[in-house]
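Human: I would love a firmer grasp of how sequence relates to backbone shape in proteins. Take your time, and here it is.
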Amino acid sequence: VLKKYLARDFGSYENFISELKEAAKSARSGWVITGYNNRDGKICNYIIDLHDEHVPVAVTPLLVLDVWEHAFAVDYGIDKAAYINAFVNNINWNAVSKRLDDAVR
C-alpha cells in the first residue's frame, strides 16, 4: 500500500525521498513529518519549524525526521546533509507501512 501511495502522491519513491531531503535541508529547526492527510487521503511532507509553527491538522504522522541541531551535531557536526542521508538510509519501512495501514482504516 505504501509504495502505491508514494507513487500516486509524489510520482515515485525517488521523488518522495528527494522532497523529504529538501524539506529537511530547508527547515530552520524543528521536524519534517511525512503524514497521511485524513481530509484528502494523500501523503505529504510537512515542515514544522520551531515548536508551534505550521503544525498540520488532521494529519497522521507516518515518519518524523528531527532536524534540530541536537539531533545531529554530536555525530555530524554542522553536516546536516550527512545526517539526513543517514536517517533516510535507516528508515524502518515496515513501521512506516504499518502506520499508513492503520491511518487508512
The chain has a mean pLDDT of 95.
